[in-house]
Design goal:
Shape: globular
CATH class of the largest domain: Alpha Beta
Low-confidence stretches: 13-21
Structural class: alpha/beta
CATH architecture of the largest domain: 3-Layer(aba) Sandwich
Number of strands: 20
Strand order of the largest sheet: 6-5-4-3-11-1-12-13-2-14
Bound molecules: 2-acetamido-2-deoxy-6-O-sulfo-beta-D-galactopyranose, calcium ion
CATH superfamily of the largest domain: Alkaline Phosphatase, subunit A
Strand content: 15-25%
Distance between the termini: 45 Å
Mean pLDDT: 96
Order of helices and strands: HEHEHHEEEEEEEEHEHEHEEHHEEEEEEH
CATH topology of the largest domain: Alkaline Phosphatase, subunit A
Number of helices: 10
Radius of gyration: 23 Å
Largest sheet: 10 strands, mixed
Length: about 500
């Protein structure tokens, strides 16, 4: 059959447009810090306005079983970037602010994968994966770091808001450091002559509830000691503006080619010191206000994508590095003003925990040109990102790369209702395993509670088995009624551990 030339042209044009809309989308990963399953409007929060995250959910696919790989920051980020569960490797626990880089240069990461595919890659925000290879020279070149493991550009804080050094690092240098006022960092001894939260509480504007009583920066005592670098010190209330500004700038400067931005928010991690314009917005004190500020940060990215007409062709993923915590070390009214807000939603536990709230987090994928809006119950995990991004850009992972990363791209794009069949949930003191609706936590001798944060950790010397289909709250341990299931899931966990990998 011969088609008239006009129809033929129209067909070719339509195919071209379809290809343009799906091939190599820009990718923005908005990664909140300690944002809980129940902290976002789209996940049922009533008290905290999160219009931008809710917009993402409305325009995208919202996952009800989206997981962070671990219940704390460093291991989650390690696993997300490398595709290897952090519990397989020593030295991937919560890193001090002077830790060396825990992902060695040469390793395949989501950033190297996308670099290979021709993306311009950038990271802005919280790093917390260590820097340097030995003792860090904070006053000189700080490397290796993000730039050596796949990021063309980086603007980061080394660790967390509550850890020194309280400065930003752009590529290999501290931003705004005056060479006449060098900076000194210590995670061992106090620095003589420098006030601390412990000895000088009268200098504090926010007091610690546990820990956090070492060097004082901006009237807030932190973890670790530092001295000097005055001109380079961050102002906590400006941090969200600074990071959002850098994120927007990265998009503005790089959108003429495919780009990948890892936008790692600090909010709502402690210390929660939102900008005054967010103070009081939630009615829940600084924790709620910091979530409003996190939502604003996400909104700045969305606005930029709209303004530059990039939204249609950009895959945005919003998630969190671990579950929520209310009192994480400062007396900031989070407990007192919580009211009926439940950061963990219907789940049990929270940050640090092997119960669901430790790792099951908000997880939203928006790609207007490709992903149909809706809700998905597929099990997906951030450790899958390397396999997913390799698949998305037509690459094959090396045999030993990303050993726990499953290609759940069809689930993320809404083409399939199923993701992985299982996920290992890692908290303080051990792991659990979810397979379908069974949730198993292997016996562990650690404390049952983090008494400081008032979180149930999920440690129990007896095996625990829950049927998530009967309720998300992990209330009834049915291990005694299902000894065969317990055996089967323990065997599976042992196998995953011994094999050193879990993907095919
Ligand atoms: C803990 C800190 C907590 C927080 C956490 C890391 C104390 C008592 N608690 O050790 O405040 O900083 O580490 O959080 O120091 S994370 O989200 O970066 O993993
Ligand atoms: Ca965190």
């Amino acid at each position: 059959m011969k088609l008239p030339a006009t129809i033929l042209l129209a067909l070719i044009f339509a195919a071209g447009v379809a290809r343009a809309a799906t091939a190599r989308p820009n990718i923005v990963l908005i990664y909140a810090d300690d944002l809980g399953y129940g902290d976002v409007g789209a996940y049922g929060a009533k008290r905290i306005p999160t219009p931008n995250m809710d917009r993402l959910a409305r325009e995208g696919l919202r996952f009800t079983s989206g997981y962070a790989p671990s219940a704390t920051c460093t291991p989650s980020r390690y696993a997300m970037l490398t595709g290897e569960y952090a519990w397989r490797q020593k030295g991937t626990g919560i890193a001090p602010g002077d830790a060396t880089l825990i992902i060695k240069p040469g390793r395949t990461t989501i950033a190297t994968i996308l670099q290979k595919a021709g993306y311009r890659t950038g990271v802005v925000g919280k790093w917390h994966l260590g820097l340097g290879a030995g003792k860090i020279d904070w006053n000189g070149e700080i490397k290796p770091g993000p730039n050596e493991i796949g990021f063309d550009e980086s603007f980061i804080m080394a660790a967390t808001g509550d850890r020194v050094p309280c400065v930003y690092v752009r590529n290999h240098r501290i931003v705004g450091l005056d060479p006449k006022d060098p900076i000194e960092v210590s995670y061992g001894r106090p620095i003589p002559g420098e006030p601390t939260g412990k000895d000088n509480p009268e200098l504090l504007r926010i007091h610690p509830s546990h820990g956090h009583d070492q060097s004082i920066v901006n009237g807030i005592s932190r973890i670790g000691y530092m001295k000097g670098g005055k001109a380079a010190l961050w102002k906590d209330e400006d941090m969200a503006d600074t990071f959002a500004g850098e994120a927007v700038k990265f998009i503005e400067q790089n959108h003429r080619q495919p780009f990948f931005l890892f936008f790692a928010l600090h909010d709502p991690h402690v210390p929660r010191v939102p900008h005054p314009r967010f103070a009081g917005q939630s009615g829940l004190g600084p924790r709620g206000d910091a979530i409003v500020q996190a939502d604003w940060s996400a909104g700045e990215v969305l606005k930029t994508l709209d303004r530059l007409k990039l939204a249609e062709h950009t895959l945005v993923i919003l998630s969190s590095d671990n579950g929520p915590v209310v009192d994480d070390g400062y007396r900031d009214d989070a407990v007192e003003k919580l009211g009926d807000h439940t950061p963990r939603g219907p789940l049990r536990g929270g940050k640090y925990s092997k119960f669901e709230a430790g790792t099951r987090v908000p997880f939203i994928v928006r790609w207007p040109g490709r992903v149909k809006p809706g809700v998905s119950d597929a099990i997906v995990c951030q450790v899958d990102f390397p396999a997913v991004l390799a698949a998305l850009t037509g690459q094959t992972l090396g045999a030993n790369d990303a050993p726990d990363s499953f290609n759940v791209l069809p689930a993320l794009l809404g083409d399939s209702k199923t993701g992985r069949d299982h996920v290992v949930e890692h908290g303080l003191g051990g792991v659990g395993l979810r397979v379908g609706n069974w949730k198993y936590i292997e016996p562990a001798s650690g404390p049952t509670m983090n008494v400081n944060t008032n979180t149930e950790l999920g440690n129990d010397p007896q095996p625990q088995l829950f049927d998530l289909g009967a309720g998300l709250g992990e209330k009834n341990n049915v291990a005694a009624q299902h000894p065969d299931k317990v055996k089967e899931l323990q065997a599976r966990l042992d196998q995953i551990r011994q094999a050193g990998r879990s993907r095919p």
